Amino acid sequence: MPYEFTRGGSGQITAAELVNGVFDQIEAGFYDALYPEILWREVLPADSVKTDINPGAMNYVYRSRDKKGQGQFVQGDAKNIPRVGQVVGQVTVPILDAAVGASLTDAEARRHQFGYQSALAQDYGEVMKQAGEYHIERTFFFGNDAVNFAPFLDYATVDKIPTDAWVGAGPEEWVSSINDALTAVWTNSKTVHLPDTVFLPPAKFAMLTGAYVIGAGAVGVAVSALEYLKNNNIYTAQTGKPLNIRALRYLEGAGLAGVDRCIIMEWNPRNFV
Q1: What distance in Å separates the CA atoms of residue 32 and residue 44, rounded to the nearest whole number?
Q2: Quick check: pTM over 0.85?
Q3: Which residues contact 69 (CB under 8 A, 6 or more apart)?
Q4: Of 38, 204, 211, 219, which is most buried by a Cβ count within 10 Å?
Q5: Strands, E, within 56-143: which ranges?
Q6: Using CA atoms, how far apart are residues 246 and 67, in angstroms rounded to an integer?
Q7: Separation between Cα atoms, residue 51 and residue 173, nearest integer Å
């Protein structure tokens, strides 16, 4: 479901609200309403965020290069010597303007200043900055069909693994399925890509923190399925590092027909250009 950033109230201030009793002790500042944290910076590697683009640019372009050619043994007069080459391409990403605004009159600012001892213009600036972050959050995770921005949660070119078997599955099935998916990415890419990160819906992440018995009978050892999975997978076997497993609330109901989805990926800045 698309994330909407909304705030309650109309923002109107009445004269009665500005009157503080002489016997009231007024605490400075406000207790702000709490909202779920913004996550796009946690999912997107910092090095893949382009902050040095010319302000006048209309597009961001990155180039790609593919090399070709392979040596072979020379025969006879050496006329069979192969030639190498390369194919150069480029990808163009449109740069679009986004904005958010607020309306403020001098009278409103004065009432706010005297009533709450707070600068309304500064407060609005903070709200607008947060609103801009929520726009990035929604666009990154859910995309925008109107401007052809693909959603991170359902990117068309990423292979989908059917999740029917995961509905109602326990820790053992999830551990096995995630390991199978890690292996599939690694082998299908001819070992070019080795996934190091798994994002799970919060409820499934929490389920994996429960006790998980390894072995059988009296020799069985109980650990959490999460801990077991972190250290028993193809990524850890190849690198000696634990698998990165994290909860991502947007994955709840993000799969086909509203089932939960997990995302398995190689957390590398070049994969996010």
Answers
A1: 27
A2: no
A3: 82, 83, 84, 85
A4: 204
A5: 59-68, 85-94
A6: 36
A7: 42
